[in-house]
């Protein structure tokens, strides 16, 4: 019997975890699989071990494991596979297939444009966007983030979309804000590329208060969030996984 185990990041802020669970509950109705469980990588329960065990206890013989993450970095490549490998040793008879984060997708670009429009600000001809990511030392993250920024500029009709990060790599948030402040753009939309609310969102909100000036407007858009369009991406990924011939834990080890 097939099962899906959704692995969310986890947050110290309860609202962030609640948002993840609510998103999975909304998504379940689109996915025709009898067993569907949600768990967290860190900072919240159920853990990956608990989620995996729940699937097995309900009769799962094959589990599609999906990381509910935006980009492919250390969590998806190392942390989650390591945790699954530990659990798998106790259930070697279970077939396992491992998916990927949401990655680069035009539906995500559509969400970003929607978030900017939700600010209700009149978008000026010389508006720019500062896309703020969580950050990772993995070069693949920077590559994908840059691709998303380019697609946003093209599809959203913005003259310029710049990127910065909250941790682990450069340019940092302060660098991005400083560069935007020194530019000729009179309007700067600051767009957090985050799945859930929490400490990082508060950090952006606090910092942004310092940058508005008469000749240049900084506008904070809402974070990406668990939008319904992500459910569509998730549905496609689960279907692809379950149509694959993957088996055993080597399937979800990244090369």
Automatic annotation (TrEMBL):
Keyword Lyase included in the entry's annotation: yes
Coiled-coil intervals: none
Keywords assigned by UniProt, alphabetized: Lyase, Metal-binding
Source superkingdom: Bacteria
UniProt signal peptide: none
Official protein name in the record: Sirohydrochlorin ferrochelatase
Organism annotation: Priestia veravalensis
Pfam families with a match to the protein in the record: CbiX
InterPro entries per the UniProt record, alphabetical: CbiX-like (IPR002762), Sirohydro_Cobaltochel/CbiX (IPR050963)
Gene3D superfamilies: 3.40.50.1400
């Amino acid at each position: 019997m097939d099962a899906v185990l959704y692995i969310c990041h986890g947050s110290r802020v309860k609202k962030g975890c609640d948002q993840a669970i609510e998103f999975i509950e909304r998504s379940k109705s689109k996915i025709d699989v009898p067993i569907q469980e949600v768990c967290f990588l860190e900072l919240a329960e159920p853990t990956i071990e608990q989620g995996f065990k729940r699937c097995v206890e309900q009769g799962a013989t094959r589990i599609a494991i999906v990381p509910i993450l935006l980009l492919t970095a250390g969590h998806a490549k190392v942390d989650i596979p390591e945790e699954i490998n530990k659990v798998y040793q106790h259930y070697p008879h279970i077939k396992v297939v491992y998916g990927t984060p949401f990655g680069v997708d035009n539906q995500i670009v559509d969400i970003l444009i929607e978030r900017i429009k939700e600010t209700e600000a009149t978008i000026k001809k010389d508006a720019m966007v500062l896309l703020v990511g969580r950050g990772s030392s993995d070069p693949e993250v920077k590559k994908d983030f840059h691709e998303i920024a380019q697609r946003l500029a093209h599809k959203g009709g913005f003259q310029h979309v710049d990127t910065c990060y909250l941790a682990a790599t450069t340019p940092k948030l302060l660098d991005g804000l400083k560069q935007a402040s020194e530019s000729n753009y009179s309007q700067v939309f600051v767009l957090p590329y985050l799945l859930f609310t929490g400490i990082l969102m508060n950090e952006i909100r606090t910092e942004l208060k310092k940058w508005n000036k008469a000749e240049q407007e900084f506008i904070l858009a809402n974070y990406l969030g668990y939008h319904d369009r992500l459910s569509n991406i998730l549905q496609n990924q689960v279907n692809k996984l379950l149509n694959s011939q993957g088996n055993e834990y080597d399937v979800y080890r990244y090369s």
